[in-house]
Design goal:
By secondary structure, this protein is α+β, with helices and mostly antiparallel strands. It has 6 helices and 8 strands, in the order E-E-H-H-H-E-E-E-H-E-H-E-E-H. The longest helix has 16 residues. The model has no long low-confidence stretch (mean pLDDT 92). The protein binds coenzyme A.
């Protein structure tokens, strides 16, 4: 597991996951609100299975996994995969505890995460998939500067009808353009990296 260390947003902090977080991970993956919104990182399972998954995740050099905290309380998780080329990332899961939705945690954690991707890791692009009826995910993606590059028509069936799968991408330039005026730190001057 490539560990991103601690990333601080305004209301959330992304930090190293610990074994004590796994019971909450399990609860979220079993929650129908989460399952309706997005595919799960892993199916619900016994604690020993989660421990094994955690150990396996720790061996995967391209996997990035964080627990998300707010005020010292665990409120979510994020999972991403660095491409083998090392210049891009797939954001696979950003999950906030459904009991704590719509408090701004998702947006704050996403902003902190993308600062890390683009400003610290210096990646070229980030990709994410979402379902077309996932209003919260689409709103966050739009705020980060993502644009749709492909669409799977009628890919998911729920409540008697089909919804599309939306494939999204944000390039570093779009991110910089979007967030240029709201940086908390000045960009590194070109002479500093020569
Ligand atoms: C997507 C998710 C992380 C958002 O978390 P959250 O903490 O509720 O998000 P926020 O409170 O920061 O809201 C983000 C934006 O979406 C909007 N929003 C949230 N829920 C919404 C809903 N049900 N309908 C419409 N808009 C919604 C908010 O108003 C906010 O928009 P704003 O910035 O313009 O005010 C959360 O819903 C979740 O865990 N979903 C399950 C997993 C998932 O779908 N992940 C995304 C794909 S990786």
């Amino acid at each position: 597991m490539a560990l991103g260390g601690t990333i601080r947003g305004k209301t959330t902090t992304l930090r190293l996951p610990v074994e004590a977080d796994l019971a909450s991970y399990n609860d979220w993956m079993a929650d129908m609100r989460v399952r309706h919104a997005h595919w799960v990182w892993h199916e619900p399972a016994m604690p020993a299975t989660w421990k094994e998954r955690f150990t396996e995740a720790a061996k995967d050099k391209q996997l990035l996994l964080w627990s998300i905290e707010s005020g010292g309380v665990l409120v979510g998780l994020a999972v991403a995969h660095l491409w083998s080329m090392g210049n891009s990332v797939d954001l696979n899961h950003l999950v906030i505890d459904p009991e704590r939705w719509r408090r701004g945690y998702g947006c704050d954690a996403a902003l902190a995460l993308h600062r890390f991707f683009f400003d610290y890791l210096d990646l070229r692009r980030a990709q994410a998939d979402t379902r077309a009826d996932n209003a919260a995910a689409l709103r966050i993606a739009e705020a980060m500067g993502y644009v749709e590059y492909a669409r799977g028509h009628n890919a998911h069936y729920r409540n008697g009808s089909y919804v599309d799968e939306v494939k999204l991408i944000v390039e570093k330039e779009a991110w910089q353009e979007r967030w240029r005026s709201e940086r908390e730190y000045p960009p590194v001057p070109p002479e500093a990296v020569r």
